[in-house]
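Quick one, probably user error.
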């Protein structure tokens, strides 16, 4: 027993026909005469040209994207989400679905009004008639896209006959005198070029009908570009021809007063009536087919958990019948609510945002120069996407500024919610490529710029042997000290030979990155295989970074045990050898995570040699949430014979020049160690200078510093490499 293959459609049946039927709607039959009468032929052609320009640019962007990758079900949603990312796709997908679902009701109500106008004696109410029409549309789509496409061929035939009837009626009466009389605009009060554009523009918005059926096409990459562009071209010719025919055959008064002017002027008015009904019905069918497929793709991507139920497709043709039922329910509720004119502008705005996002996707894919972006479509350029997105935004505010703001605000709220819940996509998008291109350009720019000490930013390389998961307090200080203004890398040294440690290195890197993610640290993580910590630091300082973006500060843990004196001294000397500042951190591990003890931040000033960097680190620390309310004290010890007043004035002048808020204090004492112990015993953090061991042994150097800091709490020792400046 063999299973029949799924029915798929080609360019004509799957794209061209749905697009043409969606574009040639009731506005063509019932509003084209009014637009021509108000705007005159020239302004009318200008309106058509601008409207078609927007759709053409969007179609070109759509063609580029469709020929770059395999387009699955979901049409515009699928393309946007795969290009701009889950935030854009997840925000636009639901509103695009609601716009399509609600527009079913708009078209059904339009069909109903036409029926009751043509047959005023029908013994049914408008809501009952609309319900029956909506049920008919639902049944057609529920049976399957193949049945609906077949029905659309019949509808297309009816519309072609109606246009033949119209031109057969107006061509014999065409007059150049009437044409000249109707060239100039004759706007009545309350109307202008922009209001007429807003009235006409919905007539050209159906060109995405074929893309919405992307999952049902044999070759979406070929069918969507050719079918959509041909549909736009064909309907543009029809709109221009109808406008010229009306302007050259009807008086201005008839154009403004007779809503059914195309029927009045046609050779067989009944065919125009049939065309109106066919146009409304075809638009309803296209929307009823497109909306469920957008919802189905959105549900399948698992962007919103409550929508997973609608991610299932059934039958040989994988019809999204659950989504079809929901679409019918939404359209039916909209019908029962009554007049939808109040929300019609918002629906149009949702369509416009979708078109703008398509153009934005093309622009970003092109401008980031992603190597994977290789569209086959020849007319692919970033300028097309940018111009299209700009035109869409301009059209939105020209049509309805308040509705445009409301639509944009709603999209922004949805995007923020998706970002807040950190929904992850399982597909690649342009975000990474966009960030990469910005980074590349920034790195090249930094290569050309000459560094100035006034522009110093902390680029901290924190090193240790073993995992940082066991030393979170030091990692927190590394993050705090950059104050949200620099770059921090937590580097882990794995002892051993690299030939035997690569697997372990990769495992440690994965554990480290997970630690960074769980702790929500704005840092990078690196793992290097070396026998000693100092060897690992040397290797990192020689290779880590790109261009001018390299570490300028080395951070490590201060060890009280004198057995570590040689290692600590070597870390300071190695950092200084590579023109990097050295920072040693000693912490109280009993303090809760991401908490700072109460008290002051005490900076003990000795000289500008280390003092500048010490003061800057204190200032940056106060930008961290945990340290925001901790005052800074700038303390200096003077001997009994020194002038404390002059020194206090000098510290105040220093703080004024540095533009750092701190309280300067002078301590008169003959013993620096006891002064620090007495005044900073209760401080939340003490920052001291740390000179490298130059004229003493490592053990003596370590013992001197240990005596200086004994009995203090959290401690930061700073050795400045001299590349920092406090003032201008």
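Nope, works fine. Designed sequence:
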């Amino acid at each position: 027993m063999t299973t029949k293959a799924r029915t798929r459609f080609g360019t004509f049946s799957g794209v061209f026909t749905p697009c043409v039927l969606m574009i040639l709607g009731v506005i063509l039959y019932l509003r084209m005469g009014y637009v021509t009468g108000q705007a005159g032929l020239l302004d009318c052609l200008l309106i058509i040209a601008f409207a078609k320009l927007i759709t053409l640019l969007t179609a070109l962007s759509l063609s580029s994207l469709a020929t770059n990758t395999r387009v699955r079900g979901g049409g515009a949603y699928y393309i946007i989400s795969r290009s701009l990312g889950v935030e854009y796709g997840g925000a636009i997908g639901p509103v695009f679905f609601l716009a399509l679902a609600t527009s079913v009701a708009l078209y059904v109500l339009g069909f109903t009004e036409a029926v009751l106008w043509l047959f005023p004696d029908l013994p049914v109410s408008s809501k009952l008639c609309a319900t029956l029409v909506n049920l008919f549309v639902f049944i057609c789509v529920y049976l399957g896209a193949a049945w609906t496409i077949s029905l659309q061929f019949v509808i297309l035939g009816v519309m072609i006959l109606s246009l033949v009837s119209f031109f057969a009626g107006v061509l014999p009466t065409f007059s150049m005198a009437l044409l000249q009389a109707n060239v100039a605009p004759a706007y009545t009060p309350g109307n202008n070029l922009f209001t007429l554009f807003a009235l006409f523009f919905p007539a050209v918005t159906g060109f995405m009908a074929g893309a919405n059926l992307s999952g049902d096409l044999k070759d979406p990459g070929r069918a969507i570009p050719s079918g959509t562009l041909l549909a736009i071209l064909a309907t543009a010719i029809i709109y221009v021809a109808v406008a010229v025919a009306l302007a050259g055959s009807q008086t201005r008064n008839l154009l403004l007063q007779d809503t059914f002017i195309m029927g009045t002027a046609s050779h067989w008015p009944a065919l125009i009536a049939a065309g109106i009904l066919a146009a409304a019905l075809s638009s309803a069918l296209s929307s009823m087919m497109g909306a469920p497929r957008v919802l189905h793709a959105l549900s399948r991507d698992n962007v919103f958990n409550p929508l997973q139920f609608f991610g299932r497709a059934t039958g040989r043709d994988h019809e999204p019948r659950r989504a079809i039922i929901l679409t019918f329910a939404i359209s039916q509720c909209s019908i029962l609510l009554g007049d939808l004119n109040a929300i019609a502008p918002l629906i149009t705005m949702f369509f416009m945002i979708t078109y703008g996002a398509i153009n934005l996707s093309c622009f970003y894919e092109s401008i980031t120069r992603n190597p994977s972006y290789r569209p086959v479509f020849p007319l692919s350029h970033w300028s097309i996407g940018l111009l299209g997105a700009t035109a869409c935004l301009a059209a939105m505010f020209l049509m309805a500024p308040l509705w445009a703001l409301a639509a944009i605000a709603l999209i922004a709220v949805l995007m923020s919610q998706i970002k807040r819940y950190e929904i992850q996509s399982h597909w690649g998008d342009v975000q990474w490529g966009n960030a990469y291109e910005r980074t590349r350009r920034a790195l090249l720019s930094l290569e050309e710029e000459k560094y100035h000490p006034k522009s110093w930013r902390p680029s901290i390389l924190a090193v240790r042997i073993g995992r940082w998961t066991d030393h979170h307090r030091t990692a927190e200080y590394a993050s705090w000290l950059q104050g949200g203004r620099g770059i921090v890398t937590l580097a882990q040294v794995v002892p051993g030979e690299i030939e035997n440690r690569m697997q372990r290195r990769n495992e440690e890197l994965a554990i480290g990155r997970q630690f960074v993610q769980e702790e929500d640290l704005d840092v990078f993580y690196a793992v290097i295989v070396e026998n000693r910590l100092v060897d690992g630091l040397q290797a990192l300082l020689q290779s880590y970074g790109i261009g001018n973006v390299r570490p300028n500060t080395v951070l490590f843990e201060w060890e009280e045990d004198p057995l570590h004196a040689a290692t600590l001294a070597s870390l300071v000397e190695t950092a200084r050898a590579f023109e990097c500042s050295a920072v040693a951190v000693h912490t109280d591990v009993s303090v809760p995570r991401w908490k700072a003890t109460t008290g002051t931040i005490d900076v003990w000033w000795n000289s500008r040699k280390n003092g500048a960097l010490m003061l800057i680190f204190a200032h940056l620390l106060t930008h961290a949430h945990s340290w925001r309310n901790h005052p800074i004290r700038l303390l200096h010890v003077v001997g009994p014979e020194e002038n404390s007043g002059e020194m206090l004035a000098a510290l105040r002048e220093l703080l004024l020049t540095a533009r750092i808020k701190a309280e300067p204090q002078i301590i008169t004492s003959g013993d620096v160690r006891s002064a620090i112990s007495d005044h900073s015993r209760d401080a939340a953090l003490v920052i001291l200078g740390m000179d490298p061991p130059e004229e003493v042994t490592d053990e003596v150097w370590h013992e001197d510093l240990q005596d200086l800091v004994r009995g203090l709490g959290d401690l930061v020792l700073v050795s400045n490499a001299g590349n920092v400046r406090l003032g201008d």
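The radius of gyration is 36 Å.
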